[in-house]
Amino acid sequence: MIEDERIVESFDQVYEEVFSILIKIAFHITGNADVSEELCQEAFVKYISRSAKIPTIEQSRYWLIRVVKNLCYNYVKRKGREGRAVDKIKELPLPETDNGERELIKKEQIETVQAALMELPLKLRTVLILKEYGQLNYKEIAGVLKITEGNVKVRIYRARAGLEEILSKEGFNVS
Amino acid sequence: MCPDKELISAYHDHETDARWTMDIKAHIEGCEKCSIENSKFESISSFLQTNEVPCEGQIKSRIYNAIERRQTVITPGSIWRKHFDVSFSAIISAAAVVTVICAALIIGLMRFGQGAAVVEEIYPESEIVVQVLSLEDVAAYLLSDDSAFDVLITIPSSDAFSVTGEPQLIREADYRRGE
After folding, report:
1. Distance (Å, rounded) from C-alpha B179 to C-alpha A123?
2. For a designed S-S bond to B41, which of B12, B30, B98, B144 qualifies (C-beta 3.0 to 4.6 A apart)?
């Protein structure tokens, strides 16, 4: 075990540390908040039945990310909803904190960035999501996706280049 | 000579080899073109980080409550402090029934445990079901970057389906795993 890894003391501890990461990954892969909620719940239920075999917080985080990524892939592939997910984004409820005009601008920005992400091919989108939201390094991403670290590096660059192109067309100042 | 853009992207992620990191940093600071490229990656990361999941707080509470409901165990409360008048024969009968039930449960669990281990080994975490119509589709899936590490191919149960020739598909899968 690596020296700075922390032992899991309770489910609540893991939930507090990992929930935000997990829901972001699920939401940005599926593009659907309701589905993300279901998939995250399923992942945590699976975790509870396995938690005795996963001693540290870091291993729990990695395990949960792998599971939720698989569940998301399962959803996207089986239901064939990838194309329709962009339409779903237009139905997003407003974020819960801000008000008025600022809220509207923020909502538009979220929709545009999310729509741009959804335009990327699944394998490019996933690798970037795991990097940006999953807080994983290239080696860990390679482990989750069963690809080489070199492939991770290439895919992340291509995802960024693709996103830059799409966002620039949408009027975002990417520089 | 400028480093390629993939390397600048890796530098942005702190994923460059320690031997080259300082050289890349110095180059980016002195090269306008590479500096702009690095800034683009920073902007994209910044856009993504501000991209919230709608109603994340509410979702967090709902999932936690749902899991808590599943985990809830009904405790006996103050039942142990109450006094009951029970005959000796009733206690003996109850003990016999409990013993039989426990023995049956233990045997059942032992058998179930053996079966479950096999399933768990074949299907870690969650399986992805991909339906295909032809062998070409199977080959395309196995060759794709998104294919799972462990793949279980279920052959149709129809009498009209027969297997002939060399098992090229299996050989190809074995070859890919060795990469």
Report:
1. 19
2. B12
Q: How many contacts, defined by CB atoms under 8 Å, are there between A and B?
A: 128
- Residue B92 tokens read as 């003996």
The Cα B56–Cα A28 span in angstroms is: 13
Q: Say if the Cβ atoms of A147 and B129 lie within 8 Å.
A: no
- Among A19, A28, A175, the residue with its CB nearest the CB of B43 is A175
| B154 touches A: beta carbon within 8 Å | no
CA distances from A174 to A15, A64, A160 (A): 34, 32, 11
Interface pTM, i.e. ipTM: 0.81
Q: What six digits make up the tokens of A128? A: 């970037």
Q: What are phi and psi of A56, to 5 degrees?
A: -115, 160
H/E stretch holding B64: helix B56-71
The closest CB to that of A93, out of B15, B54, B146, belongs to B54
The CATH architecture assigned to A11-92+103-169 reads Up-down Bundle (1.20)
pLDDT in tens, B24-45: 999 999 999 999 999 999 999 9
Residue among B52, B57, B63 whose CB faces A44 most closely: B63
**What residue spans define the domains of chain A?**
11-92+103-169
Is residue B37 within 8 Å of residue B6, measured between CB atoms?
Answer: no
Q: Which of A14, A66, A156, A160 to mutate to test the interface with B (most CBs of B within 10 A)?
A: A160
Tens-digit pLDDT profile for residues A77-123 = 877 754 555 545 545 555 555 566 777 777 788 888 889 999 999 99
Question: Which one, of A34, A30, A41, lies nearest residue A74 by Cα?
Answer: A30
Contact between B47 and A132 using a beta-carbon 8 Å cutoff: no
Q: Specify the CATH superfamily of domain B1-73.
A: Anti-sigma factor, zinc-finger domain (1.10.10.1320)
Note whether B51 contacts A37, CB cutoff 8 Å. Answer: no
